[in-house]
UniProtKB/TrEMBL annotation:
Keyword match Membrane: no
SUPFAM superfamilies: DHS-like NAD/FAD-binding domain, Thiamin diphosphate-binding fold (THDP-binding)
Gene3D superfamilies in the record: 3.40.50.970, TPP-binding domain (3.40.50.1220)
InterPro entries assigned to the protein according to its UniProt record, in alphabetical order: Acetolactate_synth_lsu, AHAS_TPP, DHS-like_NAD/FAD-binding_dom, THDP-binding, Thiamin_PyroP_enz_cen_dom, Thiamin_PyroP_enz_TPP-bd_dom, TPP-bd_CS, TPP_enz
Domain Thiamine pyrophosphate enzyme central intervals: 214-349
Record organism: Paenibacillus lutimineralis
Annotated cofactor note: Binds 1 Mg(2+) ion per subunit.
Homology family: Belongs to the TPP enzyme family.
EC number: 2.2.1.6
Protein name as it appears in the record: Acetolactate synthase
Lyase recorded as keyword: no
UniProt cross-references to CDD domains, sorted A to Z: TPP_AHAS, TPP_PYR_POX_like
Length: 581
């Protein structure tokens, strides 16, 4: 086997082969329905309650399933696939512990608006509510972290439910949908009637914005002297990156992109100011704080972006463009609300927008800030600095790789020092901050793009939460390049304990971690280690020249901090600059 996804047949070919009305099991209906939704790969782990479903996969050559080594690995891989491809990711888990092992991944996707369909098995309908073996109320458990959920009572409903689930997951504000299938329903035989239509009363996301609100925005732009665009992940999810580039260049408004918005706007563009917020650029944070017009596009004013809310953008008129009306005004008072799909809003807005001529002095000021206060760190010839490692990865790949990260210091250094120019090239857990996410997400991204370079950047802490998935890279020849930034400590926790908790270091020592090179080799993956710049360049080039999966451990300076940093309770212009001074 390899990472290559089998050639996907055209919809017409699938219809001809699998849409024939006939009496089949609920499990067969599920698999056929997934294929008819265009599903290329499902990530999963079998168990008793889903054995009929896995039995239906036997000999089903059109259906591609990747067996992970943990259900959390499966759902993170499905998440990475969805973020990289723009399609709905799908995973399968059994009842009870199998289902509950997906909960962190569901919450991760929910916080970051990622379209997933999560299929779980359950005990037979006659046993539901009896505390049967491996029973869990997964629909109840996940109610706060799903867009919608289904408990299937009759196999006849499966075609409709699956069709609805994909529609709900991938429209409006995207997110995870759960389908819980009792074991007797997966075995039930009924006549398969494929579903074509959607009729969901009460679910009609607003796509086209109110034209009067666009007129207000255009007027505000013409009057503004210090305008700023704040672009988030919603730009990427809507496919609005080209419209965003046109909007910024037409108007001449400087732009900052959030962590999940990285790649939505070319990092080399003169108008780009970098990332804002807790570990953002001096320029982006100062620009937001001094702006008189802040145009938020597909961003939700997360606390890591805003800092102290009562001191956020104190002089600015706030414009908020978002598909989810519940986000508008939730955290920041909004002067011009615009509800609609970002891509559609920008397509309508761009012909209306002219160059912001009053902002010439503002653009000059921002250029000075960018020159005076770039990201900086103290390099060393004696120890390997993590920032240098990320810069090397960027330089050798020209910023063209798909990069996934785990969570922690390495995540922020990647956001700061890797220059993303394409959407869907940076995959990270933003809202939930899920350790263990990065490596399985890279597997999913590689399955979505078999021919692209995928780099998984991890800390030595997060890597140990998902290391078992090395097995599937080796077995299936999935050529992810796995980077471990090893500082032998929970780095971000150590940084907070140093700066905020007066150097009271408590339970952060990871010095007893395994030898990552030997661990990789134990799974059948090539492992390399670097402790100096020369070794780092040589090992990384060897990894790039290898056509299979490779793990490279970079042993870096233990005491390095991520700067700039805005501490909790501060406004975003109150920055600890550290090495950036």
């Amino acid at each position: 086997m390899s990472a290559q996804i089998p050639a996907v047949r055209s919809t017409e070919q699938l219809r001809e082969k699998w849409m024939k009305p006939e009496v089949i099991s609920g499990s067969e209906i599920l698999l056929r329905s997934l294929l008819l939704e265009g599903v290329e790969c499902v990530f999963g782990y079998p168990g008793g309650a889903v054995l009929y479903i896995y039995d239906a996969m036997y000999g089903f050559d059109d259906f591609h399933h990747l067996l992970t080594r943990h259900e959390q690995g499966a759902i993170h891989a499905a998440d990475g696939y969805a973020r990289a491809s723009g399609k709905v990711g799908v995973c399968i888990a059994t009842s009870g512990p199998g289902a509950t092992n997906t909960v962190t991944g569901i919450a991760t996707a929910y916080m970051d608006s990622v379209p997933l369909v999560v299929i779980t098995g359950n005990v037979a309908t006659s046993l539901i509510g009896t505390d049967a073996f491996q029973e869990a109320d997964i629909t109840g458990i996940t109610m706060p972290i799903t867009k919608h959920s289904y408990l299937v009572r009759d196999a006849e409903d499966l075609p409709r439910i699956i069709h609805e689930a994909f529609h709900i997951a991938n429209t409006g504000r995207k997110g995870p949908v759960l389908i819980d299938i009792p074991k007797d329903v997966s075995a039930q035989k009924v006549r398969f009637e494929p579903e074509h239509s959607i009729d969901l009363r009460g679910y009609h996301p607003t796509v086209v914005p109110n034209r009067l609100q666009l007129d207000k925005l255009v007027a505000a732009i013409s009057e503004a002297e210090r305008p700023v665009i704040l672009a988030g992940g919603g730009v990427i999810y809507s496919g609005g990156h080209e419209g965003l580039l046109e909007f910024a260049t037409r108007s001449g408004i400087p732009i900052t992109t959030t962590l999940l918005g990285l790649g939505a706007f070319p990092s080399g563009h003169d108008l780009w100011m970098g990332m804002p917020g807790m570990h953002g650029t001096y320029t982006a944070n100062q620009a937001i704080q001094q702006s008189d017009l802040l145009i938020s596009i597909g961003a939700r004013f997360d606390d890591r972006v805003t800092g102290r809310l009562d001191g956020f953008a104190p002089h600015a008129k706030i414009v908020h463009i978002d598909i989810d009306p519940a986000e508008i005004g939730k955290n920041v008072k909004t002067d011009i609300p615009i509800v609609g799909d970002v891509k559609t809003v920008l397509e309508m807005l761009n012909p209306m927008v002219g160059y912001s001529s009053k902002a010439d002095a503002w653009r000059a000021q921002i250029s000075r800030w960018k020159q005076e206060k770039p990201f900086k760190y103290k390099d060393s010839e004696d120890v390997l600095k993590p920032q240098w490692v990320i810069e090397m990865l960027n330089d050798t790949t020209h910023g063209e790789a798909i990069v996934t990260t785990d969570v922690g210091q390495h995540q922020m250094w990647t956001a700061q020092y890797y220059k993303f120019n394409q959407p869907r090239s940076f995959i990270t857990s933003g809202g939930l901050g899920t350790m263990g996410f990065g490596f399985p997400a890279a597997i999913g991204a590689q399955m979505a793009h078999p021919d692209r370079l995928v780099i998984s950047i991890n800390g030595d802490g997060g890597m140990q939460m998902c290391a078992q998935e090395l097995a599937i890279c080796a077995i299936n020849k999935i050529p992810v390049k796995i980077v471990v930034i090893n500082n032998q400590v929970l780095g971000m926790v150590r940084q907070w304990q140093e700066l905020i908790y007066d150097n009271r270091y408590s339970h952060i020592d990871l010095a007893g971690s395994p030898d990552f090179v030997k661990l990789a080799e134990a799974y059948g993956v090539k492992g390399l280690r670097a402790t100096s710049k020369e070794e780092a360049e040589r090992a990384w080039q060897e990894a790039l020249d290898n056509d299979g999966p490779v793990l490279v451990e970079f042993v870096v300076h233990k005491g390095e901090n991520v700067y700039p940093m805005v501490t909790q309770g501060s406004t975003i212009d109150q920055m600890l600059m550290g090495d950036c001074e």
